[in-house]
Amino acid sequence: MKPHYFKVPFVDKITSISTELRTADVDDVQVTTKDAQRATIDIELQYSILPDDAVETFRKFRSTPEQDWIKTFLYQRIQRGVQEAASKYTVNELMGEKRGAFQAEVDDTVADALEDNHLTMPTVAVDNIVVSEAILQAIEEHAKVRQGVETARQQQTRQEVENETRIAQAEAEARIKEIKAEADATANRQLAESITPELVLYLEALAREKHGWYKYNNMQPNVMTVE
Questions:
Q1: What is the rounded distance in angstroms from the CA atom of residue 204 to the CA atom of residue 199?
Q2: Could you give the CA distance from residue 208 to residue 178 in angstroms, rounded to a whole number?
Q3: Tell me: the pLDDT tens digits for 175-226?
Q4: What is the 3-state secondary structure (H, E, C) of 144-201?
Q5: 3 state DSSP class of 222
């Protein structure tokens, strides 16, 4: 899409104001984090002058070269927006797990600051976050401690699972033995209940026929062979 240009009326010379998309690098933005640590942040953004506000923008900065008013106007608002976002996070969060949230916060605060001043900003990117060597070492130590805690927690969880598994297995085996014992007792009881005097006489007759003299004694067979 071709860029739009506006001619400012009622001036001695014609000045064209471009509303095309431009890129600006805003480096070395100094911020203080939520935990009072210092950080330096590099920002890259794309911006453009709102077409409806082109004349007003010219009137506001007509006596200042574009590169100068970008530095004095744009950079100041970016500094303010990035600082506002950084103040909501600790340095550990900025350098780690909350960097994505910080980026989103920067998008919102900087976009609002620019839109209120005749500019629009389609994209803004946090290119780099620089902290002191001492802070980096502290962050690394913090990460190691967290990793150690997480590893210990995982080991504890794994041990707890193994213990629970062993207990469940032991309980299951005990229950199986209990069920088997109950089944055996039931079978023996049913067998004992099924042995009647008539059945005893019948079994003795069969045994006598096959082996000789055979007599049940208290439900235990005694065999006496007759020559």
A1: 9
A2: 40
A3: 778 877 887 788 777 777 777 777 677 777 777 767 665 555 555 444 444 4
A4: HHHHHHHHHHHHHHHHHHHHHHHHHHHHHHHHHHHHHHHHHHHHHHHHHHHCCHHHHH
A5: strand
| The Cα angle at residue 212 between residues 207 and 215, in degrees rounded to 5 | 55
The angle formed by the CA atoms of residues 194, 196 and 200, to the nearest 5 degrees, is 115
Closest alpha carbon to 95 in 41, 44, 45: 41
Residue 63 CA to residue 72 CA, distance in Å, equals 13
CA 222 to chain centre: 77
Task: Tell me, yes or no, if the pTM score tops 0.85.
Answer: no
How buried is 61 (Cβ within 10 angstroms: 0-12 exposed, 13-18 middle, 19+ buried)? middle
Q: How do residues 60-92 score in pLDDT, each as one tens digit?
A: 666 666 666 666 777 888 888 899 999 999 888
26's tokens: 């805003």
